[in-house]
Specification:
This protein has 12 helices and 11 strands. By secondary structure, it is of the alpha/beta class. Strands 1, 2, 3, 4, 5, 6, 7, 8, 9, 10 and 11 form an 11-stranded mixed beta sheet that branches. Strand 7 and strand 8 form a beta hairpin. It starts with a strand and ends with a strand.
Amino acid sequence: MKALSVFVGPKAAARLATEGWHADLFDGLVGASGGPKWLVLGHLDRTLWRSLLHQRERPLTAVGSSIGAWRHALLAQRDPIAAIDRFERAYLEQSYSCDKPSVTEITNVAAELLRVGIGPDGETSIVEHPWMRTAVVTARGRGWLARPEGKRLALGLFAAALSNGLSRQTLEQRFQRVVFEAGPVASSPYRPADFNTAYTALTAHNTVAALMATAAIPYVFGGVPDPSADTAATHWDGGIIDYHFDLSQLAASHSPSQPGLWLYPHFGSGVTTGWFDKFLPWRRGGIPTLDNLVLLCPSDVFLRQLPYGKIPDRGDFRRLDVDERIRYWQQCVQASKQLAEDFEELIGGSDPLDGVVLLSR
């Protein structure tokens, strides 16, 4: 059984066929929102670092929302493997005082998990990393959605969901994408043209606030006062706009003759652009054909053999008691070692395109 599926765009396939897998092949790394879904990618992230990325010399933009940004924060530590180990262990064992914990309790637990993962000096490691340019995406609320709580916040979310059903671009009236970037801003290949995107420097002073903001699901996790200090608005989960990201917004190349590639370790083969879109069947789709994309994800066969036939998700807190949830999550983490093993076999083999699926127009 192949646990790992690999989807490759046409130009990405051409470069892989010519150059093989190597550390400087990619200009960008994408990390999607998804809460506990990240657990199935932990061993793959470790292998990406150990067998590929740690040999880099050129800058790499790591753009992420919510847990995707947190994964990148772990990879930016001086010892990424130890950081992932700490965070994974704490994440598996997280607990709450009751079945329906308050927003405050969930936020406090999340803050503890983040600190365990990045350690006492993690902010410095992130912003001073020699080649990883962490880009944390948040959604700055506008109008009623700039409020941290209250009935008007709920009405604003309801209006946003309704209008999004008509057009994703209507969200721009209610949210602004903000990208907190480490390193030289001008050098980043992530420059989306929509949502009046604002850019600000990721610093040791605002890194934790930005990482908390990008995971702030309204009414689940407390919103964060503007980490940039530019406005009085509340920042929310970056996945509201960029749940799995609009991949068409990724820069296609760093030079016309040699397109830079984007590496996307993902939870599955479906890419849903924004958080509200996941409730709309016509917005949930497959993988768009993007010339410079390399997407890694669990195969359908792998997913079917997991307990409950799925990877972890936030609903497990509601469906399972604490012991059953931890046991199930641990089983998924253990099984996901197969993804890492398949990836190592691919990049170490004689055929860099062995078993990959070529995305065609």
